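Anyone? Bumping this.
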Amino acid sequence: MLTEKKILELEQKANDIRISVIEMLLEAGSGHSAGSLGMADIFTILFFHILKHDPKNPFWEGRDRLILSNGHIAPVYYATMAHAGYFPIEELKTLRKFGTRLQGHPHREYMPWLETSSGPLGSGLSQAVGMALADRMDCGADTHRFIYCLMSDGELDEGNSWEAAMLAGKHKLRNLIAVVDRNNIQIEGFTEDIMPLEPLSDKWRAFNWHVIETVGHDFKSLNEAFEEAQAIFEKPTVIIAHTVPGQGVDFMEHDFKWHGIPPGIRDMTGEPSKEEQGKLALRELRTLGGKIKSEHQ
Amino acid sequence: MNFELWEEKLKANTNKIFNFIMLNPKLKLNPKIFSLGCEQVPTRKGFGEGLLKAGELDKNVVALCADLTESTMMNLFADKFPDRFVQVGVAEQNLVTVASGLSAMGKIPFCSSYAMFSPGRNWEQIRTTIAYNGRKVVIVGSHSGISVGADGGTHQALEDVALMRVLPNTDVISPCDAIEAKKATLALAKTPKPAYLRLFREKTPVVTTEETSFEPGKAQIFWLPDVGLAQVGIIVSGGLMHLALLAAKELEAEGIKTKVMNLATIKPIDTDAILELAKECKAMVTIEEHQVAGGMGSAVAEVLVESFPVPIEFIGVRDKFGQSGTPDELIEKYGLGKDSIKKAVKKVLKRKV
């Protein structure tokens, strides 16, 4: 059940996380903007409403597992975990710097409570499948844990993704819930130009998955999607979340140029100057797109 | 086998079978090693039996295969523990990444395929999701080496040791026979690190016995001179051990004293044992069914050039792919046979300073 009050809280939290993401990227001088901003709402609802987890006891056996397959959106992963209380928000400034726990792509040697290390694309879903299989071996059909796998649409180009999808379908892994960030971009362009994925829902259905399509920025719809996914008993579920890359920062939205770079490093035609990019992004987020007059921190 | 009995047998045979006593008596190796009736068993069978046993000992041991369950002998485990076996189909990238996920939940996964496909095809997945990720998974590569035979070059993994030993945080073991393969499998079920176990398709002579000790990371001297120092140290990994021992026996008859070392664990490498052998012999020959580039011989050379450089001759495949043929034909063709070994020993002797 998601009350109006809770929705407001989540919206505020997601906005704080986006602000952290921009601050981290500005400080680091490299990193992936578009997917990090686009997935902020999904990370927020997972860590602040859906997941069974305990930031103070990160190795709790009964926790749900969350695999981030496309490790390049690490900024939003780290920002969400810091805001959830896994480590100090201050530490976010160390992203990508020498000696940091916040490696450019997640590495669990430095932060052991990350469920996996990722970066090379297409192998997160199969790790989630392995976790779901282990959970079934231990708990049978009576499991109360869910294994979530967050993945990008671009990484569905990888054959490994579909090998995993096939195995999950074979084993009817009801404890497995995948979320595809359907933002339609990848590093060199639009997914449908680089390597068409459509009809994407049909593909997953053909692999014996239950498919839910939803908007990736609406907490009510997202909550319904996760509740439905948890209730589906006979199949694994994939939530195809239609997101806007760069969501929350007007000049970044829908633009694949922002896939792999941070604000503040490059002047580009049709974009604010590099000196302005960070300021504009933060102002927009801090005023909730101009809805409130004074910037809040 | 009873050790005292073995000793008695040794003494009784001392005069009759001259070469018999050159085998290291402490290791209780197979006394029939040089007779025609020496039993031959593929290392993959030893793995299959070891995995079954490991599964009986620890309920967390699980197994995965990419449609080669019988030919990697994983069927012994799969038949006994169907609920702990995952058939992933012909999908080696999935094989190891699913194993990584199982490991994350406390399982001890063994995943088997042919070495050419795993770690051949899925190396980056092994690197990132297992080695880099610190997940304890055992990659079992069967059908390695040139002795795969008739299937031809596509199926003869001559690069797998190089691929796996270059990965940080990963152990590499290449057993010399089926009995050692069984022991290695049981040992790997208990070690906390990711590991690669290299196996062969062909039957190879059983060199060790159940009584022979095995400890991962420890090299063993299988053959040694009855008196005096050895002139050449021969280091072997894998199924060519028998040929190395035959060569050593013939060289002994020709008056050349050698020591033959079984280096089953290629990583972590037994630096102390290798240096000790090098200091005694001051000339080495390495033997493996692998490319010379990057294999066990390279690993031995890395140890020696840093601390105690001595001349080395490498027995291995020299920058060539394999082809169809019988194992014996191919071993001859690629210069891995007994005569090549003897030639290498004589060559390195001449290079000694």
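Late reply, but here is one note on the structure posted above: The interface with chain B takes residues 65, 67, 107-109, 115-120, 122-123, 126-135, 137-138, 159-160, 163-164, 166-167 of chain A (CB under 8 Å).
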